[in-house]
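Morning F.,

Quick status update on the modeling queue. The single chain you submitted on Monday has been processed. Sequence for confirmation:
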Amino acid sequence: MKPSDYEINDLIPQRPPMVMIDKLSNTWKKKGEGIFMVRESNPLCLGKHLTEAGIIECIAQTAAAYTGYLRVSEKKDIVRGYIGSVKNLRIFSLPKAGDEIRTEIILENELLGFMIITGRIICKEMLMAECEMRILLEQDSQT
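Structure tokens below.
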């Protein structure tokens, strides 16, 4: 199955109202892409804009969906991940309610239960934000 064929809740451990990805649209070797419609009712929106915390969470949840897709494809359970650090965060603009954003993640490295990713948020073909993130993945009995 393609990534976009899955319901997002089958790929990530987060549950509403804290879901910050609507679908995992594509995956490639070491890369994933997610889509999210910014809604004013989202807990990480302030006023009519997605907050900085929302930007970080969109990137993290796209990484979670990418990992979840790989695991589900291998008939394994999804696992929780925890943001260990965010480096070189640059936010150029905050998406507005009603904007559809595309989040790209690139898996740079995996080491000792950590994923190191680069993430980017794009809206209307403009780079809105980027960062490097380290995510600690829970270990499970299937690894």
